[in-house]
Structures are given as structure tokens and as C-alpha cells.
Amino acid sequence: MYINTDSKPSIQLKQKPFQFRFNSVSICSMAIEENSELQVVDVFDLLPNALVFEIFNRVGDARSLSACAVLCKRFGDLVSQTHNVSLEITRRNTPMPEVSNPSRSRGYIGRFILKPIYAFVNRMVSRKSKTCSSCSDDEEEEEEKVFRLPNDLLKNFKEIRCLSVKLPGHDGNVPAESGSGALLKWKAEFGTDLESCVILGATGFQKSETKVKNDGENEMIEIPSVSVSTNLTSKQLKKRVVWTISCLIASSARHHMLKQIISLNRRIREVKISDGSKQGTIEMTEEQVAEVRKEMNMNMNSTSAAADTAAEMDRTRIPAVTIKMWYVPVLELPESGSVMKGATLAVIRPTGRAGDKDCDVSLAVGAFGEKFTAEAVRKLMDAKKSYTLEMNSF
């Protein structure tokens, strides 16, 4: 009882000073809030322009930078001077015009659809060869959607030095005849014309499978080595010719787009166009961009029929080329844990500028920047047999 009676006054004595301190803190905090409202400071105003400019250069994404540009005049001025810009082009939901419209092929979409391939290839191969991964009906439907023009999205950037453009990709890999995922990758380099193109394709690409013995140990499925590669049949060769033509037309269409971007952005030094599915890439170095710009200046002062024809085309004309091709029916990649069926490598250069094997190996191994592609290229080039094809300009 003594403890209970003593505890009551002790609690009552501590309540008053506690309440007084709480009220004083509340009053002080309200005064601070009133003063802070009168002196609002934007922390970005304290950052020097050089630091903000470096941040924008590291951001790179054109859409994000465009959003920053509308926040204030200072940001708008700095964004317009950004050197490194990356742009991902999206599809519009607007339907395409009717096929009968003659102006359809003049638009930018004509550079991405594969219909020009059919008109060219039908004179060389049968209709059945269109079952290859790069010429399927599904891909044609995907490519026939409208893209946003990169020039419209880049108009606010006046000082671009390095530009990277990503085109819309496809929804997954196109099924191969065997039912497993097909593979088709290419990389091209251009100056004023095609300088080189590397193509890596397979009718099937999958992870290595294992089977279990009765004693429980794992054993890899026996797969033919590179040394026992078989010859390409006529049908298989036709399919790979279609692959080659498809990739060359796609690369020349992107090069045509690059030339238009370069003409409107005079400060560009390096440029790259890839796609969301990581299938094809075209790159141009500072020297190659300067070469293209020099040619453009010459064409502006020229009234020749050749210059007029080049201006009307939806793509850059492909010169006569020499194609070196390697083929292995089933290629095991132990380092990557994968298997390629119908593995094919093609190294393409303009006729008369073909390099030796060491140059081809160096070009092809570093083309795609992935572990499994480098391994596949090395193994394919170790094959005892290769094919050499020549193709006229188109």
C-alpha cells in the first residue's frame, strides 16, 4: 500500500513540465516551418553547370533528358548541349495505309519491313525457302508496324557526339523447323558503302542435354565434332543465301537512316543502330562518319543521275561482295553449355577487299561481344571445309 500511494503524486508532478515542454517544441517547430516557407532553396541551383552537364551526359536516355529539359530554362539549355544520347524507338499504334498506296514504300517503315527481300529473293529461290527464321510471316507482321522517326525525337539535341539508336525488337525467337529456338545475329560496318558484315545463324539453339546412366552418373549426349561436318545441301544453301540477303538489306536500310541522322546532326562522331531483339547491329566510327559527311557534301554539289537515284532509294546500295561461309550440322559449345543445329558463319566483304583468315577470325570473334558467339565462331572457323560465294551488287 505504501508503494501505491507514493506512486500517484510522482506521476502527477511529472505531467506538468512534460506538457509544457511539448507545447514549447510545437511552437518552435511552427516558427521554423514559417521561416522555411519564406526561404525555399532549390538544391539544384547550388550545383555548378559543369556537374549538371556531366549528370545529363551519364543519363544519356533521350526521353529522360527531354523530360528534364522542360523543367526549367537552365536544364533545357544544358540538355540541348548533351554529347552522349541513346534513343529507343517505339512503335505507333496507328495502322498502316493500304498496300495499294504508292507512297507507302517511301516512308521510313520501308526501311524496316522485309517485303523488298521477297521481290529480290523470289527470283533466286523457291517460295518454300521462306520458312527460315529471318523471313517468316510473323516477322513480316511485326516489321509492318510504324516507328517513330528518330529525327523528330532528336531535334532538341544540338551537340550530339555519340548516338546510340535501338529499334523495336521481335517478341521472342522465331521457331525453327525442328521446333527449337532459331538464332540469327549480324553485325555490319559501313563507311560510304559496306565494309564488312558478319552473320551467325542456326536453325536451332538450345542448352546441352544430359542423360542419366543406370548407375546414376551423368553423361553428355554424343554430338558430332567439327571434323565430321557434312556438306550443305542445295536446299540448305538456298536458305543461307536468304539469310545473307536479309541481313544485307536490313543493314543497308539502317545505313540509309544513319546518313539522314548524320546530315541533320553535324556534330555526330560515332553512331550505332541496334534492335531490341539483339539481332542486328550497325556501327560507324568517327572516321567512317567523316567519310559519309564528305560524300554528302560532294553530292549536294552534284546533279548527276547517280546522285538522284541514290537519294530516292530507301537503302544504301550493296556493292558486289565475296562471302566466306562455314557450316556444321550440330555444333556443341561446352564452355557455354549450348548446342547449335545447322550452325552457319558468314564473313562478307566487298569483292577485291577480302582479308586473310586471321583478319576474318579477328573480325568475327569480336563481332557480337557474347561468350557463346565467340566460342561458336572459333569452332566454326576450325572446320576443314568452307564455302566461297560471290554476289553481284543490288
Automatic annotation (TrEMBL):
InterPro entries assigned: AUF1-like, F-box-like_dom_sf
SUPFAM superfamilies: F-box domain (SSF81383)
Species of provenance: Deinandra increscens subsp. villosa
The protein's name: F-box protein
